Amino acid sequence: MSDNKNKELNNTSLSSSASNGRGGLAIYWNAFKTFFKIGAFTLGGGYAMISIIENEVVERQKWISKEEFVDLIAMAQSCPGVFAVNISIFVGYKLRKTPGALCTSLGAVLPSFLMILLVALFFHQFMDLAWVEAMFRGIRPAVVALIAVPTFNLAKRAKINLANCWIPIVTALLIAYLGVNPIYILIAAVAGGYLYGKFIAPTE
């Protein structure tokens, strides 16, 4: 009885979502607008966008859960292409399959494209200005903070503790000092997680 009621509630929710805003077009506009805002107001791009994407996608829009967001970052990192665009594609596809992915990826890319186009057009006119150089010197430390905060939050959600804290430390050392390709790290992590879940975890 409860299963039938849950199915009815899910169907009602999907129907109301599909019929909302001009035959469901509102969700596409909202997805595009959200990622356009993320792309337009994030300095540094890449990992600096994590906290802003999380705030918009997880906290405000509630399109995905916090656990899904952590998994999403792992998938985006393991796929070729721009990190932030990969995330936008995954979120858009979850919302409305391929059309949703097109909307979110376009929203994420368009601000950077327009900004770079303007910079290319007027670069030689302001590249030597002292205030421009000073502005970018001030931006760089802020970008470091934008990367550090979501990294700390992700570590908490990934359940990093004293037993497994050596994994991110060794990973960072391998990448920073030995130049190990992150793809190999991810493959090793997947294999290790599979073996642990299959052979070790059941005996604990």
Walk me through this protein's architecture.
This protein is an all-alpha fold. Helix content is 81%, strand content 0%. It has helices at residues 2-40, 50-60, 66-78, 83-126, 130-157, 166-177, 182-200. The longest helix has 44 residues, at 83-126. The model is unreliable at 1-23 (pLDDT under 50). This is Chromate transporter.
Write the layout of secondary structure elements.
Layout: H1 2-40, H2 50-60, H3 66-78, H4 83-126, H5 130-157, H6 166-177, H7 182-200
Helix pairs in contact: 1-4, 3-4
Protein name: Chromate transporter
Subcellular location: Cell membrane
Keywords: Cell membrane, Membrane, Transmembrane, Transmembrane helix
Keywords:
about 200 residues; mainly alpha; 2 domains; 7 helices; about 80% helix; disordered N terminus; Chromate_transpt; cell membrane; transmembrane; chromate transmembrane transporter activity; Chromate transporter
